[in-house]
Amino acid sequence: MKLLSFSIVFLSICSLSFAQNYSISGEVDGLLDGDVLLGYYYGDKQYVKDTVLSVNGAFVFESDDALESGMYFMLLSDKQFFQFIIDQDRTFNFSTSNTNLVGDMEIDGSIENELFYEYQQFTQQKGIEVQPIKEELQLVEKDAKKAEKLQAKLTAINQQVATYKTAYINEYSNSLFVKMLQALEPIKIPEAPILENGSIDSSFQYKYFKSHFWDHIDLTDDRMIRTPIFHDKMKKYIVDYTPQVADSITKYVDILIEEARPSIEIFKYVVNWTTHHYESSKIMGHDAVFVHMVFSYFVTRQASWVDEVQLTNIIDKAMRISPNLIGSIAPYITLPDDKGVIQDLHSIEAPFTILFFYDPDCGHCKKETPLVKETLEKYMDRGVQVYAVCTEFDDAMWKEFIVEFGVEYWINVNDLENISNFRGKYNVMGTPRLFILDAKKEIIAKQIDADALDEILENEFRLLGEKN
Questions:
Q1: Pairing status of strand 334-336 against strand 106-108
Q2: pTM for this structure?
Q3: Packing angle of the helix pair 144-171, 111-139 (nearest 10 deg)
């Protein structure tokens, strides 16, 4: 049986002082003595709620702690597991065998789980009926008449399952399991229309798929956050089915968040996951998504679950990143060079300006500088300029570095008076840091290495040539 992933939501619990919030007793025929785990899921993570010892196949989970609505699993001492539903009923009994956990399962005291296992047992039985037919079908592939009869049997069984599923969904429409079944329904995309010019609308199917992606899942139901279905669908919607450029990502994330807003838990999950995912992304430009999330949902105090210290830290990080996002005009810097001449970054006339922050005493900088120099020598005759900013205040070490690495022809500057705030403007939290600016001093790449520098410059010059 496939293990599903589910998550937890905190509900208000109204109970008597010493009432047990859950009591689940089980008996598994043939199970060896040992630990049995009661587990739950949050998003794509698994957690243990409780552990008890099974003796002669019997065990009881009971506690005054809250057991939130959702889907749970029990991991038995023989490493087999099965799932069950917690919603209205938190006190019930079950019995089964370790040779057929699903088929032999009997539930007493939980309507949700009686129905859940009734469905599983029906589909399991139909699966058993189908298997020998499929095997026989492979053996008689060349006998058209026999193959046709076998295929008709398969079709009939599949129709029985479909009819049973439809009736089940209609009768128990508010149950968690039914909502999971509905969420797994594929999106039926109609044929693309013909445009006025007689061609097929090539973008229709993608647009339809995106706009109807959430049709079968209830984004207002907190319980859905505790299913693997939601996390997987959310990730596919945001990552797999959305172009991974900041504008597209933020557009569709905002759409999802607005649809999920009625559910406190889903709203919280989407905001948290998206913010963390793009904060930690190594893909250039994804930090713009992080900044968008912070300014849209944290600065506006919609993330009420975040304490003041966390809120201050995350806003501070976004504020440091926001001035130097891809597509932004590079913050202004005017600094003296190694000859004392004031050099204004924005006054440099070049098709591309390389902004290079380095520490002359940094081992990584010493390894990267020769590579950057070698790469840029390929483009110097095409007008590329380098504005190299020393991040330290040792004048002698800075000038020795320039001579040692033979970069005297770069525009080498330093802020010995510490008045330009270049660290804040460009979020220079470490070195080396490499930016590429176009002729208008718009940031087109940042925090890259020499290999990426070569690739990007080559591509940018090619694009310039095509424009000209």
A1: unpaired
A2: 0.85
A3: 170
- Percent of the chain residues past pLDDT 70, beyond the cut: 95
pLDDT tens per residue, range 126-180: 999 999 998 888 887 777 888 889 999 999 999 999 999 999 999 998 899 999 9
Examine the pLDDT at 16 and tell me if it is beyond 70. no
The full DSSP string for 180-195 is HHHHTSPP-PPPPPBP
The rounded distance, in Å, linking the Cα atoms of 359 and 397 is 10
Whose tokens are 């193959």? That residue is 147
Residue found by looking up tokens 């069984």 in the block: 157
Please tell me the distance from the alpha carbon of residue 54 to that of residue 24, in angstroms, as a whole number.
13
* Residue corresponding to tokens 């496939």: 2
Tokens, residue 173 = 């429409």
Looking at domain 22-108, which CATH architecture does it have? Sandwich (2.60)
What is the per-residue pLDDT across 254-300, written as a single tens digit (0 to 9) for each?
999 999 999 999 999 999 999 999 999 999 999 999 999 999 999 99
Q: Hey, what are 413's tokens?
A: 């500057």
Tokens (6 digits) for 290: 């992080």
Contact 180, 229 (CB under 8 A): yes
Please state the domain extents for the chain.
Answer: 22-108, 120-181, 204-324, 334-467
Intrachain domains 22-108 and 334-467 with the same fold: no
Residue 433 vs residues 372, 391, 410, 447: alpha-carbon distances, Å:
11, 10, 16, 5
What confidence score (pLDDT) does residue 8 get? 27
Transcribe 219-282 into DSSP letters: TT-GGGGGSHHHHHHHHIIIIISS-SSHHHHHHHHHHHHHHHTT-HHHHHHHHHHHHHHHHS--
Rg from Cα positions in the chain: 31
Domain spanning 334-467: CATH 1.10.150.120: no
Comparing CA positions, the residue from 226, 296, 286, 217 lying closest to residue 71 is: 226
Q: Return d(Cα 288, Cα 250) in angstroms, integer.
A: 9
pLDDT of residue 333: 96
Task: For residue 176, give Cα distances in angstroms to 4, 97, 105, 164, 200.
Answer: 14, 25, 19, 17, 40
Per DSSP bridges, beta strands 22-29 and 91-97 are parallel
